[in-house]
Amino acid sequence: MSRPGARGELNLQRWVFWQLTHFSSQLLLNIEQLR
User: Fold this and answer.
1) 25: closest CA among 9, 17, 10?
2) DSSP per-residue string spanning 1-35
3) Looking at residue 27, what is its pLDDT?
4) For residue 4, what pLDDT is reported?
5) pLDDT at 20
6) CA dihedral in degrees (12, 18, 19, 24; nearest 10)?
7) How far is CA 12 from CA 1, 8, 19, 21, in A?
8) Distance of CA 1 to the CA centre of its chain
9) Whole-number pLDDT of residue 2
10) Based on the structure, what is the number of domains in the chain?
11) Which of 6, 14, 19, 26 could be a cystine partner for 2, CB 3.0 to 4.6 Å?
12) Residues 3-32: pLDDT tens digits?
């Protein structure tokens, strides 16, 4: 049996990953606009 909270941990990892990809894409767009 998986320990309680494993599902929440996975959701958190996915949320953090999405935040990182979103942030990096925004950052790239800003850099492109600055040039």
Assistant:
1) 17
2) -PPTTHHHHHHHHHHHHHHHHHHHHHHHHHHHHH-
3) 96
4) 65
5) 98
6) 150
7) 20, 6, 10, 14
8) 28
9) 58
10) 1
11) 6
12) 667 788 899 999 999 999 999 999 999 999
Q: Which domain holds residue 7?
A: 1-35
Q: Which residue has the higher pLDDT, 24 or 2?
A: 24
| C-alpha dihedral, 19 to 25 to 31 to 35, nearest 10° | -160
How far apart (Å, rounded) are the C-alpha atoms in residues 6 and 10? Answer: 6
**Residue 1: exposed, middle, or buried by beta-carbon count in 10 A (0-12, 13-18, 19+)?**
exposed
What whole-number distance in Å separates Cα of residue 35 and Cα of residue 13?
A: 33
